[in-house]
Amino acid sequence: MLYNDIKHILPEFAFQGKYHEVQEINSGIINNTYHLVYLLEDGTARHYTLQHINGYVFKDPVAVMNNIQRVTDYLRRSLRGEGLDPSRRVLRLKPTRGGAVFFRDREGGVWRAYDFIDNATAYDRPQRPEDFYQVGRAFGEFQRRLCGFPMDQLAETIPDFHNTTKRFYDFVRALSQDRAGRARSVEAEIDAFFDRRKMMGQIVKGLEEGRLPLRVTHNDTKINNVMLDDATGQALCVIDLDTVMPGSALYDFGDAVRFGASTADEDEADTRLIRLDMDKYALFTRGFLEETRGFLQPEELKLLPLGVKVITCELAMRFLTDYLDGDLYFKIKSPDHNLIRARAQLALLRDIEAQEDRMAQIAASL
After folding, report:
1. Could you say which of 96, 131, 224, 360 would form a disulfide bridge with 126 (CB–CB 3.0 to 4.6 Å)?
2. What distance in Å separates the CA atoms of residue 364 and residue 16, rounded to the nearest whole number?
């Protein structure tokens, strides 16, 4: 029973009311997430989100929580400074009964809770074209509001998260060790990453040389990490802030397009169904550029399509690396799940490469 998995954790947080029910949220592939319902004496429901942080992925969960607390506090001040109500626009951590922002269980696992954002939905796929435009605005606004955030206050929650040069060497290491005995069956995929090695390192090189600025970035800009208002359809809040850290705007732009403008799921087995929807690409780009106008540099604007290519290739390589290692990082539903994911992302990458010139034209026109 799901309740039995978390019943020892619930009393540690300052939830209002009496526990009523729990539902697991399965959209994420890293942390374990639960939607909690508590009832007050008058029958009014209070909703919360409870999460167990994946200790294998996040080696320093305390640094993760410090980042989240600092960034959300900064975003609230930014909104209030413009006379805006931040209550549904920024994640609010629910403290423990001792006043901390997380609880550590007997096994050393770290748990956190948030106030649930009512009357809003995070979709896995756009329900209407306007949705992806709103997601573009949300991630653009996120970067705009954090432009002045002191970068030295942010920890690198996953070191070298988007260092694609290092990711490539991790892939080569996994290939040479072949822990799960799977390398011989994926030679075509292996060749694809070796062929694109130089392309994958271009953003890293631009950051190292100073041609690209370091910014506060989200680093997991899927459409389901933006809450849309159920009544108005407008973007409300960017969620899942575990990977907020210094990075390139190109990574955030690229990952959002990779996930949201694909015509198929991230793990679609039939690669013939996978391509980049250029209408959705244009919608997201318009929303993103409307919010970032005035602070993105010319080199960043020129390289937006490169961001889509790099992040798609990087994720495909990460999926295959995990497959070669024996599926240690991503949650899987079948033995070949990571391989299916890798092949799906490679199919999407090939379509992105075929449409790169058109992507550049659209971005330039906006």
Report:
1. 131
2. 50
Please state, in angstroms and rounded to a whole number, the distance separating the CA atoms of residues 242 and 253. 18
Instruction: Enter the tokens of residue 47.
Output: 């909703």
Per-residue pLDDT reduced to its tens digit, 211-237: 999 999 999 999 999 999 999 999 999
Q: How far apart, in whole angstroms, are the C-alpha atoms of residue 267 and residue 60?
A: 29
Among 22-26, 83-87, 179-183, 215-219, the range scoring the smallest mean pLDDT is 22-26
Helical H runs in the chain? 2-6, 61-81, 129-145, 164-177, 187-195, 197-200, 202-209, 249-260, 278-292, 298-302, 304-325, 337-354, 356-365
Tokens of 125: 């796929």
How many CA atoms are closer than 13 Å to the CA of 132, on its beta-carbon side? 25
Q: How far apart are CA 243 and CA 220, in angstroms?
A: 7
Q: Which of 23-27, 48-52, 258-262 shows the lowest mean pLDDT across its residues?
A: 23-27
Report the candidate in 298, 314, 288, 315 with the shortest Cα–Cα distance to residue 204.
314
In this model, does residue 103 exceed pLDDT 60?
yes
Number of helices (H) and strands (E), helices first, in the chain? Answer: 13, 10
How many alpha carbons lie under 13 Å from residue 230 in its C-beta half-sphere?
5
Closest CA to 257 of 339, 158, 167, 348: 348
User: How is residue 46 annotated by DSSP?
Assistant: E
Size of the chain, expressed as the number of residues it contains: 366
**Which two tokens mark 70?**
């600092």
d(CA 174, CA 271): 25
DSSP string, 217-233: E-S---GGGEEEETTT-
Q: Are 58 and 157 in contact (CB under 8 A)?
A: yes
pLDDT digits (tens, 9 = 90+) for 132-166: 999 999 999 999 999 999 988 999 998 899 999 99
